[in-house]
Amino acid sequence: MADAAYAVLSRGTDYTGNFLVDEDVLKEQGVRHFEQYAVQPGHPLLPDFFLDDAPEMLVEKMEQHGATPAFRPPTSSTVPPSGGPIENTFDAIKAVINEDVVKMTQGIYQFDLSGENAGVWFLDLKSGAGGAGQGQPPVKADVVMTMDSADFNKMFAGQLKPTLAFMGGKLRIKGDMALALKLEQLMSRMNKAKL
Asked: What's a single GO MF annotation on this record (predicted)?
């Protein structure tokens, strides 16, 4: 990112208001080999979860390099859940969390929901294979999110961006903001997998 930022900042002051992708900027600068940007020499570059890519393609790319995807696109045999809207959302969350997601996230989230489906729910992405459910988390939450239950469902369904919800006052976050951003990435993956 630093090399791409340097290339952009080296342009004239009239170059503004553009959406840029690091890799594209570096390619414009003549960079053709990106191994130097890998986490470890020989390790494939990780996908950017902020850029759209079909979940099937991400799974395929990850498996080609020996990685175990933390999510899978739903199969056509997926049975729709039968509980209320919040319970259905947490059932879908439970279906995509596993030990790999827990290792990548390392956070416990509490959701204080108001409105028609008010209640307290938790998402444990810190211990074992993770867990989720109604009530207080098993240990103190790293992040507490407060919002209306209808907005919560919209957020996890991809109809409301968490950042916009936060900036618009629909979502209040207390605790570790870095972990809140990790959850946003998980929501994005779930949405791509058709939550």
From this structure: oxidoreductase activity
pLDDT digits (tens, 9 = 90+) for 86-145: 998 888 888 888 888 888 889 999 999 999 999 999 999 998 888 999 999 989 999 999
Position of tokens 């988390």? Answer: 137
**H or E stretch at 154:** helix 149-156
DSSP 73: P
In whole angstroms, give the CA distance from residue 44 to residue 125: 25
Separation between Cα atoms, residue 164 and residue 151, nearest integer Å? 11
Length of the chain: 195
Residue 136's identity, in one-letter code, is: Q
Task: Give CA–CA dist 195/185, Å, rounded.
Answer: 14
- CA-closest candidate to residue 107, choices 140, 148, 134: 140
Helix (H) or strand (E) holding 55: helix 55-64
